[in-house]
Design goal:
Blueprint: H1 12-17, E1 19-23, H2 37-40, H3 45-53, H4 62-71, E2 76-82, H5 109-118, E3 122-128, H6 151-155, H7 160-174, E4 183-187, H8 203-206, H9 208-218, E5 223-224, E6 236-237, E7 249-250, E8 253-254, E9 256-262, H10 279-291, E10 295-300, H11 310-326, E11 334-335, E12 344-349, E13 352-357, E14 364-367, E15 374-379, E16 387-388, H12 393-399, E17 406-409, E18 421-426
Parallel strand pairs: 1-2, 1-10, 2-3, 3-4, 4-5, 6-9, 9-10
Antiparallel strand pairs: 7-8, 11-12, 12-13, 13-18, 14-17, 15-18, 16-17
Helix pairs in contact: 4-5, 7-9
This protein binds alpha-D-glucopyranose (GLC).
Length: 427
């Protein structure tokens, strides 16, 4: 088994749990056309203000969210405490641009943390390094005012050191006021993105070293991501909206990683987005991730009312139903030491080997090098036996396979499970 680079934070829960819920929630739920809407449409503060003035998610029920996440098999959660728009979901002392000043008038984060903890989930915070509202955040390539004719001039009065201190102050609140925080997802760095003379931002701008020192001081166990432009400080890597085909390596060394994904093409609630993934894709993404030694953080973008959209609930139900019978092949599992047959993914947990069959073959599944190594084989979903090496000699001859191949005999019809899993108990 691969041994990933050791972490500064406590990775024990992280590598066991494998599957978490990402939540992107903010003012952008109101325009409902992507969390980057302020940047994409170059909206001024003034024209973005109606979303603040109308933010009133009266149906917000964090207990219900937490129950839904737990039932979907998610073992941890990461919520946007502040996204790039700068709006804060908690009652911070350092800005008025926060939920308690909207018509809703109440902190969203404290009840959230309580509710998810009560359901047994580990808690993570997402914190945006970018801030398209803070008056000291210099205008850059992603800022809504990037094409303003006076952008460079306006930057002269913006003081990044003031903003960096603001971030440290907020981080102190987030990592002090809500008990133990298990994961921190800072987002993101782009030091080389120069736009019309406006520089990008990286470790020198965020003052990443100071920020990390503070984070480690306040929450020594926290698992910190890799987007602060400070590679040595990262506990885990965050491939986004892709499915890595193999374990992520940095400088030749395997590292812990967590891929974040959306149900459709937006993180924030997007009313008209139609690229929702199929049940089969959803399950295969989870399986493929664990088979490559990673975690999956699957995103929900709650609506402006404070609810999970029906399409998100349907997608979560896919995970719920599949994990209800197949979770042994996910929790506590990692990449297997064995090679997967075509159209399959293997995960392993000690003596248990799990073959996930992505495309249903005709009768036989062939596992290289395993013929004498397996004690018992069964479907995970119904515990029914799968016969091993039960193929007649003449057929075996016709097959022309190496002698050490384990031959499993499968039913002709694929069982009624999105992705069937075969559990092999090794000798
Ligand atoms: C990105 C995007 C963003 C999203 C995040 C999730 O960097 O800026 O909107 O929050 O990735 O990983």
């Amino acid at each position: 088994m691969l041994k990933p680079k050791p972490t500064s934070g406590d990775s024990s829960w992280f590598t066991h749990n494998r599957f978490g819920m990402f939540i992107h929630w903010g003012l952008y739920a109101l325009p409902a056309r992507h969390e980057w809407v302020k940047s994409r449409e170059e909206i001024s503060d003034e024209n973005y203000q109606p979303y603040f003035d109308h933010f009133n998610p009266t149906l917000y029920d964090p207990q219900q969210w937490a129950r839904t996440a737990r039932e979907a098999g998610m073992k941890y959660v990461v919520i946007t405490t502040k996204h790039h728009e700068g709006f804060c979901l908690w009652d911070t002392h350092y800005t008025d641009y926060k939920v308690t000043n909207t018509p809703y008038g109440k902190d969203l984060i404290a009840p959230f943390v309580d509710a998810f903890r009560a359901e047994g989930l580990h808690i993570g915070f997402y914190y945006s390094l970018l801030d398209w509202h803070h008056p000291d955040f210099p205008i850059d390539v992603y800022h809504p005012l990037r094409n303003h004719p006076d952008a460079a001039e306006m930057n002269k009065s913006r003081d990044m050191t003031v903003y960096a201190e603001y971030m440290r102050n907020q981080m102190r609140e987030l990592l002090t006021n809500f008990g133990q925080i298990d994961e921190l997802f800072c987002d993101f760095s782009y030091p080389d993105r120069v736009y019309q003379g406006l520089p990008g931002k990286g470790r020198a701008d965020w003052e990443s070293e100071k920020l990390v020192k503070l984070i480690r001081e306040l929450q020594p166990k926290i698992m910190l991501n890799n987007r602060l432009d400070l590679p040595d400080a990262a506990d885990f890597y965050t491939p986004e909206q892709i499915q890595p085909p193999s374990w992520i390596h940095i400088n030749g060394q395997p590292v812990l990683w967590e891929t974040c994904q959306t149900f459709s093409g937006s993180w924030g609630y997007h009313r008209d987005e139609e690229t929702w993934k199929s049940p089969s894709q959803l399950i295969r993404m989870l399986v493929n991730t664990v088979a490559c030694g990673g975690n999956l953080l699957m995103n929900v973008g709650p609506t402006a009312r404070g609810t999970f959209d029906q399409r998100a609930l349907d997608a979560l139900a896919v995970y719920r139903d599949w994990l209800a019978v197949n979770s042994d092949s996910i929790y506590g599992c990692t990449q297997s030491e064995f090679t997967a047959p075509p159209d399959c993914r293997l995960t392993q947990n000690g003596k248990k080997l799990y073959a996930h069959v992505f495309a249903w073959p005709f009768i036989h599944l062939l596992l290289a090098g395993l013929t004498d190594r397996v004690e018992y084989a069964q479907f995970l979903h119904d515990g029914s036996e799968i016969l091993m090496n039960a193929i007649p000699d003449w057929q075996l001859e016709h097959m022309q396979i190496p002698q050490d191949t384990l031959v499993l005999t499968l039913p002709i019809k694929k069982p009624n499970v999105v992705v069937p899993v075969i559990e092999l108990t090794l000798k």
